[in-house]
């Protein structure tokens, strides 16, 4: 170790004074910390380290890095470090480093009591419920203003959203619906073939698609496609303070941003449900006539006799309800998004999860009501 840069003084009992001198620049070389620590720990009676840096002519971050490593080694041995003799700028940098280390130091996980965790979940549920009710109230007021012609939103934006919710989704809806019809046909054939009643595949595919499956599959597709898009768009606008700008200009963001999206999805989802019903029946028809050897005319006749108008209306009701659920879930998560990139991602994920969960619950409720009413 170069003696002209570091000198050890043991004149004070149980105290090591480290005298620093010369040029302490990264370009000129910094003494090795290992040699310093070996000298320090070679004296077991040392309990304190002090510094004398009055003879340092130049220094940069190399000095701070050297001191940081030395201080960490001293902490491991419970040796106190007195920084008073160091340059004032170096002391400030060391203090700043200590504060940053406190922030990034991992906190020990503390297990909360069971009742405290339950209480936190209940309070979160309460806040979420109040937020939902408040949002539904704003939507109701805005829809009333829309009906009376007092609401303000751009018609061109509404038509663009209508296209995104409808025509742009036809390809994906077609693919999924055809495949669902194919799957239903194959599953029905497995059991009906035992009794020689393969013709009733037409009944299974037709009723299942028109009554429930067409609407459910369309709802799930639109949850991941359109609901997530609504949440991401509004979340980014919230992050960029565009929604605050609308409020400053006196424009109600619910009327301007949320109502067009709800109306577009409520209009298009029943129509997409009808289209999905047709594509699903088409998929079952192709497989039944092309692979399972069923007469095409008989298949169409059975489908026509099996699918009642009541089944069609139930499917359209499913589509209408799913449109409301997806639009409200996506817009609610987007409007309540935290102002960060992470918040936008969480809002998008939450919108999809909420939409799909609500669709399954709504399907169960509607099915139970139909069973009670005998429809």
Describe the structure.
With 375 residues, this protein is α/β, with parallel strands linked by helices. It has twelve helices and four strands. β2, α1 (33-41) and β3 form a beta-alpha-beta unit. The mean pLDDT is 85.
What are the defining features of this structure?
alpha/beta; Transcription Regulator spoIIAA; four-stranded mixed sheet; single chain; 7% strand; 375 residues
The H-and-E topology, N to C, reads as EEHEHEHHHHHHHHHH
Number of domains: 2
Which strands sit side by side, in order, in the main sheet? 1-2-3-4
Low-confidence runs = none
Strand proportion, as a percent range, falls in 5-15%
- What integer value in Å does the Rg equal? 35 Å
Number of helices: 12
Sheet/helix structural class: alpha/beta
Q: How many DSSP E strands?
A: 4
Mean pLDDT across residues: 85
Principal-axes shape call: elongated
Helix content: over 70%
Biggest beta-sheet profile: 4 strands, mixed
* C-alpha termini separation: 93 Å
């Amino acid at each position: 170790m170069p003696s002209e840069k570091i000198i050890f003084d043991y004149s004070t009992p149980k105290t090591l004074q480290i005298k620093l001198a010369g040029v302490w620049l990264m370009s000129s070389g910094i003494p090795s910390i290992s040699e310093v620590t070996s000298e320090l720990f070679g004296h077991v009676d040392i309990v304190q380290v002090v510094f004398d840096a009055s003879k340092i002519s130049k220094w940069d971050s190399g000095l701070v890095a050297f001191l940081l490593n030395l201080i960490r080694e001293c902490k491991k041995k419970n040796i106190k470090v007195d920084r008073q003799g160091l340059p004032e700028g170096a002391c400030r940098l060391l203090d700043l480093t200590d504060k940053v280390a406190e922030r990034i130091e991992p906190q020990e996980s503390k297990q909360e009591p069971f009742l405290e965790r339950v209480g936190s979940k209940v309070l979160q549920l309460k806040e979420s419920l109040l937020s939902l009710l408040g949002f539904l109230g704003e939507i109701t007021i805005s829809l009333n203003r829309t009906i009376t012609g007092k609401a303000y939103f751009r018609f061109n934006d509404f038509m663009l959203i209508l296209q995104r919710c409808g025509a742009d989704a036809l390809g994906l809806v077609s693919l999924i619906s055809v495949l669902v019809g194919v799957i239903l046909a194959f599953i029905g054939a497995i059991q009906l073939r035992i009794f020689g009643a393969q013709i009733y595949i037409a009944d299974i595919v037709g009723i299942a698609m028109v009554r429930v499956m067409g609407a459910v599959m369309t709802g799930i597709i639109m949850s991941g496609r359109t609901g997530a898009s609504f949440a991401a768009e509004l979340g980014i606008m919230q992050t960029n303070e565009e929604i605050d700008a609308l409020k400053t200009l006196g424009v109600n963001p619910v009327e301007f941003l949320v109502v067009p999206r709800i109306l577009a999805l409520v209009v298009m989802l029943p129509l997409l449900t009808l289209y999905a019903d047709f594509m699903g029946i088409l998929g079952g028809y192709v497989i039944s006539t092309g692979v399972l050897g069923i007469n095409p005319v008989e298949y169409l006749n059975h489908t026509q006799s099996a699918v009642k108008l009541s089944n069609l209306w139930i499917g359209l009701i499913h589509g209408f309800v799913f449109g409301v659920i997806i639009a409200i879930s996506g817009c609610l998560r987007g409007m309540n998004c935290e102002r960060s990139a992470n918040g936008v991602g969480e809002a998008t994920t939450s919108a999809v999860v909420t939409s799909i969960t609500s669709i399954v619950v709504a399907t169960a409720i509607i099915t139970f009501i139909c069973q009670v009413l005998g429809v």
